[in-house]
């Protein structure tokens, strides 16, 4: 063995191995150093964000922009002939009459979201005569914004959307006062962002917004804004989704509770219902249905399809009658419910008189419409519906006695599914009061769909 280690073959092999390791180490070391140099070069080529940066609030204005800005400053101080304004608004004056035009000219409107929808809305309001407009948006103009933004040009790419709107619109309506808020709408800042109008000198007018326009495309911010407006009694109108919709005759304005064929509206409505807000918010939405030959968004991931068929994304046209029927059914059998018709007190073998059930009519509506989409999970039938436990409680206990003198049901919204009365009776007998599991009775597709919806509902519970 020792002779082999001292052989020429071993020495050549060892030499080659060491040489290879040295060369590889040198190459890797060079690549690492070169990579670091390239990163440093890239960092040094990026200008610091200062006052001269295009995205800063202090914009670099052209001579024409400076002239327009100076004219706007003078006009907003009153140094602008009112006859010129009335001449520019002559068509509006004919349509609205002097009384209506004066009301519009004295209005204060807030637009939250200054993208495709918000920019066109702002442009229309300014051109119509609204004199006080507050713009709220955290984003900047990008190349992809140019196909839908109302006024942005290539020169505006990289600038805040709120600045872009003011700069262009003050060239058209210099008398309009703009209040720019280059920030993301958040509940913590709602009192300030949606608060009274403030003059340029910082003084506040005792004037709340006449209307708020929701043109947000972020679901969390949209729900937060609408919930705040509903709570404070502020007038608001919300823009829902119209992506890949092409039929303008299918656009409607109505209460959010009646919106159909609109996934964004459905998601917003479900979040709001979880907060106890079922109606009272006007929305703009499209009822156009997807179909062959129509544009469509990019394919959804497979897990999204497991949540239900495309046709189930919209609320039923007769949703209200469905909820009323379910509610009336629950009221008629309320005593039976309390005595254990869905397992409450039945298995415990005790009197359930006075049992308190933690569900109300709004909860029923939420479950029927938003979770189960107005259909039986078994047959898809939208009539003669009832709510029934999906599984028997693991510990067999259905009554909470933590409060002395009060028996309360442990049933939660995540425990209930929607079936026809006949299906619910069988399910109750076999599963809730019997010893079977849903997997033993229903097809795998039904079980997976129900479990996915229940899991989704657990995620929505944080909004309640």
What is the count of β-strands? 11
Order of helices and strands: HHHHHEHEHEHEHEEHEHHHHEEEEHHH
Number of helices: 17
Proper CATH architecture of the domain at 63-239: 3-Layer(aba) Sandwich
Described by its quaternary structure, the protein is: single chain
- Radius of gyration over alpha carbons? 32 Å
Give the CA-based shape: flat
CATH topology heading of the domain at 63-239: Rossmann fold
Strand content: 5-15%
Mean pLDDT: 76
- Which CATH C-level class of the domain at 63-239 is it? Alpha Beta
Proportion of helical residues: 40-55%
Main beta-sheet annotation: 7 strands, mixed
**Side-by-side strand order of the widest sheet:** 3-2-1-4-5-7-6
Question: How many angstroms separate the termini?
Answer: 78 Å
- Poorly predicted spans: 45-57, 298-302, 304-354
Could you name the CATH homologous superfamily of the domain at 63-239? NAD(P)-binding Rossmann-like Domain
- Quickly give the structural class: alpha/beta
Notes on the structure:
Helix 6 links the parallel strand 1 and strand 2 (about 130-135). Among the domains are: about 65-240, NAD(P)-binding Rossmann-like Domain (Rossmann fold); about 320-464, no CATH class. The protein has helices spanning about 1-5, 10-45, 65-75, 80-90, 90-105, 115-130, 160-170, 190-195, 220-230, 265-275, 300-305, 320-330, 335-340, 360-370, 420-430, 440, 445-460, and strands spanning about 110, 130-135, 175-180, 210-215, 235-240, 250-255, 280-285, 385-390, 400, 410, 415-420. By secondary structure, the protein is of the alpha/beta class. About 45% of the residues lie in helices and about 10% in strands. It has 17 helices and eleven strands. The protein has a seven-stranded mixed sheet with strand order 3-2-1-4-5-7-6, with helices on both faces. The model is unreliable at about 45-55, about 300 and about 305-355 (pLDDT under 50).
